[in-house]
Specification:
single chain; alpha+beta; 8-stranded mixed β-sheet; 7-stranded antiparallel β-sheet; globular; disordered N terminus
Length: 1205
């Protein structure tokens, strides 16, 4: 066991209260360390696990008070606040905001979490009510509306009289200008609010939505947290009580805030992993913390990595947190069979009932799979189950359930495998899920994970460490003696940390650095004062200063050490090159914020070197287990960890157990105990490179390949997002990456915007068909031609063939499509509302060779882009985006080649077909439940989209026939055939409730008929820019109308652009979703073919000369019915200088339909309120000049209702 280097005559308790178990590391008065573990929830036996563990250690019975003076410190990580957030059981809270922004946090950035949900479910709001306060500042701090203190007092008093005692205050630009927020906070305290959370104190950074959400979280969970802290403090007497914060530092209980508690437990694990690995001499680690409900992974290379904007439980948190990626794959993840594929999670059995083996009637889980495989042995596992917590794991019920599941799988698929093999299949999928999570925090960010050590901990980590390492090509696993309770150990090893932040948002120059030096000194002094008040001596305090630096015009800040301008620039460019693969020296640099981290205290604990006994006898196994590993059942010795001496080695297969964890040594691996009593597991035999899995469809490998193909497409997407120039790609996520088989058929698509779904296949097939045999290794092609598989001109597709390693045969294709910010045309942004010829929309690219055998054809490309009738306005930005797309494709090429090397080409090709067949079968199942239908959908400008759907039950297929649709239009509402197909694909995918891959198989049961020369299949030179955004929405609602599934959505994207010589901006605006059988439509959300994010209101006003007057839900605009349609929004934008404002929208004349007796959604409406009081009406597709003081008002349509009221 590890020895403490400091001894006192009192106890210390280091506690991690997790979702399933509460873990303890206990430091006795003589410095010796021991461990303890309890179920977090066991109401039959105790009220609180943390206090119960302390009682059991000290021998205190029942509810008797703990003895005074015997506990020196309790250091704790807790999920109390996290659970309150997850379960929405926090304090009743009122939100106070600037007038006009009552709905801003509800609308957020307008995107929906699941793009394929008919019933769009947004996270439940944390606040109970909102009060709007009359006050308003500009981004520069000028007072537009003085604070109405009397009105604020009256509104707050009403909330108080309603019983609310917790308030969150967030005003526009309050992060920088504090007076109004501070005055209202003072009023709240005078009235008697007991919890007052103020945004400039909670999160003093730009972004109204993230800062507002964080302030609400603080107000919502702090009282719950405070009551828990007080409970522990009351029981522990004069002991020093400290809690782990999300940032990885301890805080005195008196200073522990709700917003800093959300990752309290996981942060302790990363501290423990980093500190213990450093003791062992490993500075580069991947932290792998597998618990009962989830797995946390983190990257560490000498310093803690933090995220300053995180999504937790559907809430945007803008506060410093350990950069931890969580995947829903823990010991309690439930095992499913869906009729064709094995599935693991994401749902969990938790602590109660827990896995089937926990004796509480739970379902089969990952832990049960390990029991079935012999990797967990009931006789060697703690007997803490049953009503008296004294029974062993129930392995009999595990065998019984797996036998039944194996029989079910055989009946459904004909796949005959033993119950043990079934368990092994589920475990493989769980391992791959965890490996993919690690790739996201390492490989996708430019780190070569094979150079790292996997520091494995958590109750379930050791059971899977070797398998996860193998999946990543890692060859070393580190397991500390306290691995089973490492988060608790981390609580004891952690230092106290205080982080102070300040928004800057200024261009980096030498004058700014002087100002920042003064700011760093100011923040350091403030943090040091608080640290001293937490009981830390001044001599023990150190300070770390960081700057958040980004390129001008982007939102992606990198954190660098604060220093001189030259030092910060050099560090920034090195980091940018590593993570994104390029630098942009021609761009200016902006300091977004500075952070100062004040560090003090900390426990001086070291793992001492043990004396080697040369005469020590090798440890004898406790017994042997029949363990299924590496495809066969083997006899594996089971060792007690405490009997293994330093330098002793154990070859796999073997099982090593201690009181808190089980570690499985897989075949080909060897465990060694070091002189510090650490266990290091090394791969000693070469990993098998090719799996002999056969080419027949296997329900386990089907899920594995599904996930692998999608993972490759997603990795391509990360490269594209990180390396692109266009804000549309980098921040609004308007892009898609995909992989295709050797016929150009879609295998896996990672879309953020549904309009890209499946529409790239036509582009790829066009290039394959036209280029024929002339394609060579190193060639790359680019296309945006709407008549050859493109969508509209700003959406540019780059395609790369994947040759075999000899360069002879094309095996696959990869492609990426991104919405370039500018590609020429009549108007900046390439979205003209009045175009009638394709040339007016920008540069037309029809199968252009971008790279010739590795040589970028930059000169020829520049000529293409700059000699068009309406050339691009910034070729270098287009070039930057195209290079990013080339890089994204190259990532796909590399990963596909790795897959072929690992599994063999025949297997990969076979499974490309199998995943398509699986998707096809899923769509056929949906079709067999549909009925024939037809619908004619009129658009505002008189054109009609008509569809007839005929179901063929005998073949479980359908014909989707658009005959009767209006002919090609002399406007820009024509839609390309590729987008029409994408809209059909999206709509049928919408009917599948399961999580299936999107690929060419989905289209096989569909015969899509699109007549020549109709507006859904136009000929050159038809204009198409509005069709992509508007007619695509019309198609989805037309099909849903024909099938009578739900009311229409708002049916438009409300494309709003404004600009002049100095500024250009483009956004789409949300509206109401349609209602369906059993659910209301959702208010204020993007629907169907788009899901783009909105720019935060504070950033919008900071970057552009506009004022967002208000952004609110347009209540009552949704259609009536048994289930009402979702409401649209009203967005009021005031201009501060002359600009051209253009609108491209629908449903301004024809309302969104209701279904089965439901009412229509209200029409949208666009108009300009002029400074002189007059009003200028705007059509659905219109453009106007706006001047200083004018307000452009956009009212978006509501969704249709469903059912007779």
């Amino acid at each position: 066991m590890a020895e403490g280097s400091v001894t006192t005559d009192k106890w210390q308790f280091w506690i991690d209260r997790g979702g399933t178990f509460t873990d303890f590391v206990i430091r006795a008065p003589d410095g010796r360390l021991s461990t303890h573990k309890l179920l977090s929830e066991n109401p039959e036996r105790y009220k609180d696990a943390a206090l119960q563990g302390i009682r059991e250690t000290l021998g205190v019975d029942g509810d008797a008070p703990l003895p005074e003076g015997v506990i020196e410190a309790v250091k704790m990580g807790t999920t109390v606040a996290t659970n309150a957030l997850l379960e929405r059981k926090g304090e009743r809270t009122v939100l106070a905001v600037t007038r006009g922004f009552a709905d801003q946090l509800r609308i957020g950035y307008q995107n929906r979490p699941n793009i394929f949900a008919r019933r769009i479910e947004l996270p439940e709001l944390l606040y109970e009510s909102v009060v709007e306060i009359d006050e308003r500042l500009t981004a520069e701090g000028d007072v537009l509306t003085p604070l109405d203190a009397d009105g604020a007092r009256a509104s707050l008093q009403t909330a108080y009289d309603d019983g609310l005692r917790s308030i969150a205050i967030c005003f526009m630009h309050g992060y920088r200008y504090h007076d109004h927020e501070a005055d209202v906070a003072a009023i709240a305290r005078e009235i008697g609010f007991t919890q007052v959370s103020v945004s400039h104190e909670v999160s003093p950074l730009m972004k109204f939505v993230g800062r507002g959400d964080t302030t609400v979280v603080d107000a919502y969970v702090s009282p719950i947290l405070r009551r828990y802290v007080d409970l522990i403090a009351a029981q522990t007497g004069d002991a020093r009580l400290m809690f782990m914060q999300s940032n990885g530092g301890l805080a005195d209980a008196r200073f522990f805030q709700g917003k800093d508690s959300i990752l309290s437990g996981p942060a302790g694990g990363i501290v423990g992993a980093a500190q213990t690995a450093q003791m062992a001499g490993y500075s580069k680690i991947i932290g792998f913390d597998m618990g009962g409900t989830s797995t946390d992974v983190a990257h560490y290379d000498g310093e803690y990595e933090r995220a300053f904007e995180t999504l937790v439980a559907g809430v945007r948190m803008r506060a410093p947190m350990m950069n931890i990626h969580t995947v829903a794959a823990g010991g309690g993840s439930i095992l499913h069979f869906d009729g064709s594929r094995y599935r693991v999670g994401p749902d969990s059995a938790g602590a109660n009932p827990g896995p089937a083996c926990y004796r509480r009637g739970g379902p089969l889980c990952v832990t049960d799979a390990n029991v079935m495989l012999g990797k967990i042995q009931a006789e060697f596992f703690p007997s803490v189950f049953g009503p008296n917590a004294d029974e062993p794991l129930d392995d009999a019920v595990v065998r019984e359930k797996f036998e039944a599941l194996a029989a079910e799988i055989e009946t459904a698929t004909g796949d005959r495998r033993s119950p043990v093999e079934v368990a092994g299949g589920f475990l493989k999928i769980a391992v791959d899920n965890m490996a993919n999570a690690i790739k996201q925090i390492s490989v996708q960010r430019g780190y070569d994970v094979t150079d790292y050590t996997l520091n494995c901990f958590g109750g379930a980590g050791g059971q899977h460490a070797c398998l996860v390492a193998d999946a990543l090509g890692m060859t070393r696993v580190f397991v500390h003696p306290f691995a089973g309770v490492l988060s608790a150990y981390g609580m004891g090893l952690a230092e106290q940390r205080i982080i102070r932040e300040r928004a800057v948002e200024r261009a980096l120059d030498d004058a700014l650095v002087d100002d920042l030096n003064a700011a760093v000194d100011d923040l350091s002094a403030d943090g040091a004062r608080e640290m001293e008040s937490q009981g830390v001596e001044a001599s023990e305090i150190s300070v770390i200063a960081k700057a958040h630096l980004r390129y001008e015009g982007t939102d992606t800040a990198l954190v660098v050490d604060f220093g001189s301008r030259a030092e910060m620039l050099e560090t920034f460019e090195d980091a940018h090159m590593q993570q994104f693969g390029f630098i942009a020296p021609e761009k200016g640099n902006v300091v977004e914020a500075i952070t100062v981290e004040v560090v003090g205290g900390g426990q001086d604990v070291a793992d001492e070197e043990l004396d080697l006994d040369p005469d020590a006898e090798p440890a004898q196994p406790l017994g042997h287990a029949n363990m299924y590993a590496a495809g066969a059942t083997r006899s594996a010795p089971v060792y007690d960890r405490d009997t293994l001496s330093p330098s002793e080695k154990v070859n796999g297969p073997a099982v090593i157990i201690d009181s808190n964890a089980t570690t499985v040594i897989e075949p080909g691996w060897q465990a060694e105990i070091t002189v510090r009593n650490h266990m290091v597991i090394n791969r000693v035999e070469e990993r098998q490179s090719e799996h002999a899995i056969g080419t027949e469809a296997d329900p386990v490998m089907l899920e594995v390949f599904n996930n692998l193909f999608m993972s490759i497409a997603e990795q391509m997407g990360v490269v594209l997002q990180n390396t692109s120039y266009s804000v549309n790609i980098k921040e609004r996520l308007d892009f898609s990456c995909a992989i295709f088989d050797n016929d150009g058929q879609l295998v896996a698509n990672a879309p953020h915007i549904p309009v890209h779904l499946g529409s790239m296949s036509e582009s790829v097939q066009t290039i394959v068909r036209e280029r024929g045999e002339g394609v060579k290794p190193g060639d790359v092609f680019v296309l945006n031609a709407p008549y050859n598989g493109g969508t509209h001109l700003p959406d540019v597709t780059v395609m790369t063939p994947v040759f075999d390693r000899d360069g002879n045969d094309i095996l696959f294709y990869v492609a990426s499509r991104g919405h370039h910010a500018e590609i020429g045309g009549k108007t900046p942004g390439s979205m003209p509302p009045d175009s009638r010829h394709i040339d007016e929309e920008g540069v037309l690219i029809d199968n252009f060779q971008l790279v010739d055998q590795g040589r970028l054809r930059e000169k020829e490309l520049q000529e293409l882009f700059t000699t068009a009738p309406y050339p691009t306005r910034n070729f270098h930005h287009n070039l930057g985006d195209l290079k990013a797309q080339i890089a994204a494709n190259e990532k796909g090429v590399q990963e596909l080649r790795k897959m072929v090397d690992h599994f063999g080409l025949d297997v990969v090709l076979a499974y490309m077909k199998h995943v398509q067949d699986n998707a096809e079968e899923t769509v056929r199942r949906v079709i067999q439940n549909l009925s024939d239908g037809e619908y004619e959908y009129e658009m505002d400008f008189g054109a009609r989209v008509k569809v007839a759907i005929t179901v063929h039950p005998e073949t479980r297929s359908a014909t989707v026939d658009f005959t009767g649709t209006s002919p090609q239009q002399d406007n820009n509402f024509n839609i390309t055939h590729a987008v029409a197909v994408a809209a059909v694909l999206y709509t049928f995918r919408l009917m599948v409730d399961d999580d299936i891959p999107l690929n060419a198989g989905c289209l096989k049961p569909l015969n899509i008929v699109v007549p020549e020369d109709c507006m859904l299949r136009p000929k050159y030179p038809a204009a198409v820019v509005a069709g992509n955004v508007e007619t695509s929405q019309a198609i989805t609602d037309t099909i849903l109308g024909a099938l009578r599934l739900m009311g229409a959505s708002q049916g438009t994207m409300n494309n709003f652009t404004f600009g002049n010589a100095n500024y250009q901006y483009y956004e789409t605006i949300c509206g109401g979703a349609g209602a369906g059988a059993g659910f209301d439509g959702t208010d204020a959300v993007h629907t169907h073919m788009t899901n783009t994010r909105l720019t935060d209101p504070e950033i919008l006003e900071w970057r552009f000369p506009v004022i967002l007057d208000s952004f609110s839900i347009r209540r009552g605009s949704g259609g009536t019915g048994k289930h009402r349609g979702g409401d649209g929004v009203t967005r009021r934008l005031k201009f501060r200088e002359q600009m051209t404002a253009s609108m491209l929208s629908g449903h301004r004349i024809i309302p969104p339909y209701g279904m089965n007796g439901g009412g229509e959604g209200k029409l949208g409406h666009n108009y300009v309120e002029r400074l002189d009081g007059s009003v200028t009406e705007q059509g659905g597709t219109d453009s106007t000049e706006v001047y200083d003081g004018d307000v452009y008002v956009i009212e978006t349509p509501g969704g249709g209702g469903y059912g007779t009221p």
